[in-house]
Amino acid sequence: MKRSRFSEEQITYALRLADSGTPVVDVCRQIGITEVTFCTWKKKYAELGVCELRKLKQLEDENARLRRIVADLTLDNQILQEIVRKKL
Asked: Which Pfam families does the entry mention (predicted)?
């Protein structure tokens, strides 16, 4: 999973700026992102604060790590099953 170069504080700051009435184009130009990125952030993090956003990112990172572990174990299991089949 690609790591964002923006911190949780920057994401929430951008969303709060737009909510306070600053045009989205100006917010995007100020932070250095595209409008598509801003819309993605808004869709994903609309009502989250900094703490909730941190927790969400930590959970996403752990979920990705656990998925990699499961994939590795599944691959190991398949290799061992093939070896057993070849011996019989």
From this structure: HTH_Tnp_1 (PF01527)
